[in-house]
Amino acid sequence: MSSTEVKNFTKKLISWQRSQGRHHLPWQINRTAYRVWLSEVMLQQTQVATVIERYQAFLKRFPSVSDLAAANIDDVLAEWSGMGYYTRARNLHRCAQEVVNQFDGVFPSDPKLLETLPGIGRSTAAAIAVFAYGESAAILDGNVKRVLARVWGVQEDLSKTAAVKTLWLHAESLLPKAPEDLVSYTQGLMDFGATLCTQNKPACIDGSGVICPFEKDCQAKKLSLIDKIPLKVKKVKVTSVDINWWILIHQGKILLEKRPHQGIWAGLWSFPEKLDLPLSAKKIELPTIKHILTHRRLSIRPVQVVVSKKLSNLDPQLEWIDFSELKKLGLPTPVKSFLKNSNLVRDDV
Ligand code: SF4
């Protein structure tokens, strides 16, 4: 694409953002590196509406990077509970500790330094550098890749390194020269991809009558390739997994297992899936729960086991937890909803 068209893209996007972009998201107010970083990480795999709800609560509980660094990881996971992709929460915690230990509690402004921190990739580093420090750096998250690929008609598989490299070069060449335009431009890319040039219903074909500022130049539109760009790569194979949940309650306490730091629901509390039970234990089968994860389709068979006395000699990862303490723990979504909705037989009420 010629430099004139590139210039127009940047200019049009800035003007679109100023008149039609988003200006009142909670993380756009009082932008600090901590707040920008938190919102960026939350938005990576969670819908904006959910992030709006959860962001304020997280900030209330951990108002600063040093509060987060000093917190117990279990409290961080509990606050993150329900948002999925828990590696993000563990990385947030580790990153906060590194910012405190290596940078005296102040996020660096150099995107290259930001990228060295846990959980911060190149695009997130750029977003923090632009929004918090006014640096000139290009973002390229999934939405931006889609927008650039459509406007410039990039038909390659965007999971391939060469295609991504080309898009990074594009993204860098599009940056506005005037420092005062950087925030509107970067926010514009985010807003445009999230609200107008969406994956399945971009404004130019959704019949809403909303005019896309790039409609005349957009290669995907001109060549009727909107549904082909970005190229859809083969979906990840989803495997079915059957698991048991052994549910034991004794004198107002429930037996939970702290999951290992790798694998599904790493570091969260769930029901034991393997347990040596006394032969006399009475078992009550409860309705099966279906739960879908990115790569797995879980079929969970909860079985309540009625025991006359507390099991002893338990593995160290197992713990009897008081019901009143459950809300303080990081629990996977299906465990949370099971505890909320099932009629467990309690021996203390
Ligand atoms: S014309 Fe359609 S596909 Fe192209 S940028 Fe605009 S909304 Fe996206």
Write the layout of secondary structure elements.
Elements: H1 3-20, H2 33-43, H3 48-61, H4 65-70, H5 73-80, H6 87-103, H7 111-114, H8 122-133, H9 142-152, H10 161-173, H11 182-196, H12 219-222, E1 239-250, E2 253-258, E3 269-270, E4 282-285, E5 289-292, E6 296-306, E7 318-322, H13 333-341
Parallel strand pairs: 1-6
Antiparallel strand pairs: 1-2, 2-3, 2-7, 4-6, 5-6
The structure holds iron/sulfur cluster.
Q: Structural class from helices and strands?
A: alpha+beta
What is the strand tally? 7
Q: What molecules are bound to this protein?
A: iron/sulfur cluster
The quaternary state of the protein chains shown equals: single chain
Total tally of structural domains: 2
Which strand-content bin applies to the residues?
5-15%
Characterize the largest beta sheet: strand count, sense, and whether it forms a barrel.
Answer: 7 strands, mixed
Q: Can you name the CATH architecture of the largest domain?
A: Orthogonal Bundle
Which CATH class of the largest domain? Mainly Alpha
Mean pLDDT: 91
Helix content: 40-55%
Q: Which ranges are low-confidence, i.e. pLDDT below 50, for 5 or more consecutive residues?
A: none
Count the helices. How many?
A: 13
Task: Outline the structure in words.
The protein has helices spanning about 5-20, 35-45, 50-60, 65-70, 75-80, 85-105, 110-115, 120-135, 140-150, 160-175, 180-195, 220, 335-340; strands at about 240-250, 255-260, 270, 280-285, 290, 295-305, 320. Strands 1, 2, 3, 4, 5, 6 and 7 form a 7-stranded mixed sheet that branches. The model has no long low-confidence stretch (mean pLDDT about 90). The longest helix has 18 residues, at about 5-20. It has 2 domains: about 5-220, Orthogonal Bundle (Endonuclease III, domain 1); about 240-340, Nucleoside Triphosphate Pyrophosphohydrolase (Alpha-Beta Complex). β1 (about 240-250) and β2 form a beta hairpin. The protein has 13 helices and 7 strands. It has about 350 residues and is α+β, with helices and mostly antiparallel strands. The chain binds iron/sulfur cluster. Iron/sulfur cluster binds next to α9 and α12.
